[in-house]
Amino acid sequence: MLMSVAEASAQQLSPKLQYAIGHWQIVNSDGPGGQAEIYLENGRLFGRVTQVRPGRTPHDVCDKCSGEYKNQLILGMVFMRNFHPSGDDWVEGTVVDPENGKEYKGKIWTVGKDSLHLRGFIGFSLLGRTESWVRIP
Description:
By secondary structure, this protein is mainly beta.
């Protein structure tokens, strides 16, 4: 029986780390945002926008972003990159916020199977913001 690289890599992860993989409703301080798919690629965690937040259209671009993200469509954007496992957390990745165009360092952890927390920060983890996401069945 053959299995994909993602499946083989996921089998080496603790259940708590595996829980981060899936489809999520983003919830921030303003209420429900867009939706994201979190996936595993070469042992690293990435996230892609699968539905834009209320008030945006599928044709909106990240006009406040810089570099490779500048004027990229928000829908489909890989906004989370290169998180790697450390204990039961995903750490040292980056997150781009399409609302302000800023890139943050990040940490991800799950609480049970259906709740995910993403902490974005600049510099030190103490100086940042945490979002709680809910799994989409």
